[in-house]
Specification:
The chain has a single domain, classed as Nitrilase/N-carbamoyl-D-aminoacid amidohydrolase. The strands form 4 sheets. The chain has a 6-stranded mixed beta sheet. Helices cover 25% and strands 29% of the residues. With 299 residues, it is an alpha+beta fold.
Length: 299
């Protein structure tokens, strides 16, 4: 029986990741249990939480970290979801086939079953974010995954900069856009551009909430992760996980340095109310948006 129209408590688990995947899984399970004790109905973990953020370099041996779905990791969290009667958003480094790997996001329902799967659509390729080496672009499209607690719109990190991704996911019926994330500062840029970068990241996602009248929740990792053998070169993940409402107001936000569990109530009735007051979806000119499917409009 679904209760998608009822309020629910969303928890974001902001955490650091160690070298050992088993250590990270155990830590994540413990943090999820803490969130459950605090009343969470839906819990979401950060992008690629099971390992260090390996995309700072290009190493073929890293593919050994990938798991097919279902996997031993999904089984552990499925058991917890079933035991506690909660929904879990679980990012996974997916091995789909030999040579085909995805940055994926599994939604586990309250009975432990797989409610749905999302594969990251936008794949970055920037200094220390060499994701195109590892991940095949997603082919499942933008979607809403319906669970017994909520209608969730799964997206991942680099997707969060694209209004098209947020719009299409909202149009599919999501009450909450979920963005597991691994983003941070390059130390050599932080002094000059760090606050500008983080503010832009927060602002664009609050804009998605406002433009679509939905909740937005973003969960990041924390900690400095050095490139192997280069102790002062790496990424300082900026945490700052947050949940905002359909008017972009921040309901809860984490620090940039601590492991934290954020909780906020998500009330789908507020989406209906705000869409009546600010009818952005009503006034869309869908007859005039054909150019959106072109790379660039020349002339």
């Amino acid at each position: 029986m679904t209760n998608e129209s009822h309020p629910f408590v969303l928890a974001l688990v902001q955490m650091s990741s160690a070298d050992d995947p088993d250590v990270n899984v155990e830590a994540a399970l413990d943090l999820c249990r803490d969130a459950i004790q605090r009343g969470a109905d839906v819990v979401c973990l950060p992008e690629l939480f099971r390992s260090r953020y390996f995309c700072q370099t290009e190493e073929h041996t890293v593919f050994d970290l990938a798991e097919p779905i279902p996997s031993p990791t999904t089984a552990r969290f499925s058991a917890l979801a079933r035991e506690a009667g909660i929904v879990i958003g679980l990012p996974v480094f997916e091995r789909r086939a030999s040579g085909v790997y995805h940055n994926s996001f599994v939604i586990l329902d309250t009975d432990g079953t797989h409610a749905g799967l999302y594969r990251k659509m936008h794949i970055p390729d920037d200094p220390r974010f060499y994701e195109k080496f590892y991940f095949t672009p997603g082919d499942l499209g933008f979607q809403t995954i319906h669970t017994r607690k909520a209608s969730l719109g799964p997206l991942i990190c680099w997707d969060q900069w694209y209004p098209e991704a947020a719009r299409l996911t909202a149009l599919a019926g999501a009450s909450t856009l979920l963005y597991p994330t691994a983003i941070g500062w390059l130390p050599e840029e932080k002094a000059e551009a760090g606050e500008i970068q983080r503010d832009a990241w927060i602002t664009v996602q609050r804009g998605h909430a406002i433009a679509n009248n939905v909740y937005v929740a973003t969960v990041n990792r924390i900690g400095f992760e050095a490139i192997p053998g280069m102790l002062e070169t790496g990424i300082e993940f900026w945490g700052s996980s947050f949940i905002c409402d359909p008017q972009g107001q921040i309901l809860a936000q984490a620090s940039s340095v601590n492991e934290e569990i954020l909780l906020a109530e998500i009330d789908p009735a507020r989406i209906e109310a705000k869409r009546r007051e600010w009818p952005f979806l009503r006034d869309r000119r869908i007859d005039a948006y054909g150019g959106m499917t072109q790379r660039f409009l020349d002339g």
